[in-house]
């Protein structure tokens, strides 16, 4: 993920952009600490890592024009008929935090806060799913 310019600080800051403070969950500073801990745990999960790696490979294939039926130029435009990226993001979010994470993923996918707005077509959804899942898990 570092190759794509993604680091833990950016993941936390992006999550905090969408976090709605709640007295039982603490301040943004307390939430940042909880998010850091949960991201570190999540990065130890082989299945999350495998799904993120799948997203990285799909991103590379798209950039090189290696996805059948999708040119490199078309890929860069994030075409609406390419839904594999959303499916990966949804699965990552739901794997981490269950069904509620699907709704959080949708919020992230529509708003594209923080680092998401600058990421390429697949990685914005993969990282959006990762952040959504971790945020829901911490808030649950």
UniProtKB/TrEMBL annotation:
Pfam families: PgpA. GO terms for molecular function: phosphatidylglycerophosphatase activity. Residues 51-138 form the YutG/PgpA domain. GO terms for biological process: lipid metabolic process. This is YutG/PgpA domain-containing protein. It comes from marine sediment metagenome.
């Amino acid at each position: 993920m570092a190759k794509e310019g993604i680091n833990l600080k950016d993941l936390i800051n992006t999550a905090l952009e969408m976090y709605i403070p709640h007295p039982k969950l603490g301040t943004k500073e307390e939430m940042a600490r909880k998010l850091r801990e949960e991201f570190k745990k999540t990065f130890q999960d082989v299945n999350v890592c495998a799904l993120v790696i799948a997203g990285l490979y799909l991103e590379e294939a798209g950039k090189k024009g290696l996805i059948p039926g999708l040119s490199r130029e078309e890929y860069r435009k994030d075409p609406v008929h390419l839904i594999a990226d959303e499916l990966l993001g949804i699965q990552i979010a739901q794997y981490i935090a269950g069904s509620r994470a699907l709704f959080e993923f949708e919020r992230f996918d529509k708003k594209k806060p923080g680092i998401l707005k600058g990421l390429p077509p697949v990685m914005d959804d993969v990282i959006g799913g990762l952040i959504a899942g971790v945020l829901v898990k911490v808030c649950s």
